[in-house]
Amino acid sequence: MFEKVASWHHLRAPWREAKWLAIDIETNGLDAKGDAMLALAWVRIAPPRILQNQAEYRVVNTNLELTQSAVIHQLSLSDIAAGLPLEEVLAEFVKAAEGAIIVAHNAQFDTVVLQQALKQTGMKWQPDGVYCTLRAERRRLERQSQTLKPDSLTLAACRERYGFDAFSGHHALNDAIACAELFLAQAFRFSSGHHPNARSLLKEGR
């Protein structure tokens, strides 16, 4: 009950006062429900800043055979061998994410992977909300009646429209920070001329 009341007040606070946490998850494939989590990164957003000194990146130790996805994400067998047990990674994340609104690009994938991992380890956690930078950008472009071309909603393509430099993707920490930057650009554009609360901004990214 206390958590629900706290969440209610949190979402009605000005968006710049809310607790936002950008995340990115690397997996062993493209099946959110079936493939294993290989790495998890998160970084706190305290608008207008991204607290990179509080950014974290954790590799998960797994015995599963690595696929091409691991190579794309710049992970080697030695990286995996030196990783932490899934339970430790999730426990650290849950502590950092307590009472946070999650920000991710293609957030549905990340949240499904996360919930599957939590279920696997017998842990429970729910964010105060989930903001998807991909969905927010799609909504903005559709309002402008723009035709969405293939690959127009990738993280790199979305960032380019806001004037960000190109970045090297497919590393969870780099992607989490890049997503945080995109979120702030979207949020400040959305809030220009008024002062929305966290709930109003959250609706843009649902």
What secondary-structure arrangement, pairings included, does this model have?
Blueprint lengths: L1 H10 L8 E8 L9 E10 L2 E11 L8 H5 L4 H5 L4 H11 L4 E4 L2 H15 L7 E4 H11 L11 H7 L10 H19 L7 H7 L2
Parallel strand pairs: 1-4, 4-5
Antiparallel strand pairs: 1-2, 2-3
At CATH level 3, the topology is: Nucleotidyltransferase, domain 5
Beta-strand percentage?
15-25%
Second rung of CATH, namely the architecture: 2-Layer Sandwich
Element-by-element helix/strand order: HEEEHHHEHEHHHH
Q: What is the straight-line distance between the termini?
A: 24 Å
The total tally of domains equals 1
Q: What share of the residues lie within helices?
A: 40-55%
Q: For this structure, what is the CATH class?
A: Alpha Beta
The secondary structure category is alpha/beta
Question: Would you tell me the overall average pLDDT?
Answer: 91
- Characterize the biggest β-sheet: 5 strands, mixed
Low-confidence stretches: none
The dominant shape is globular
Major sheet strand order: 3-2-1-4-5
Instruction: Give the name of the CATH superfamily.
Output: Ribonuclease H-like superfamily/Ribonuclease H
Radius of gyration: 17 Å
Strand tally is 5
Continuous helix count: 9
GO cellular component, one term: cytosol
GO molecular function: 3'-5' exonuclease activity; nucleic acid binding
Keywords: Exonuclease, Hydrolase, Nuclease
Domain Exonuclease: 19-192
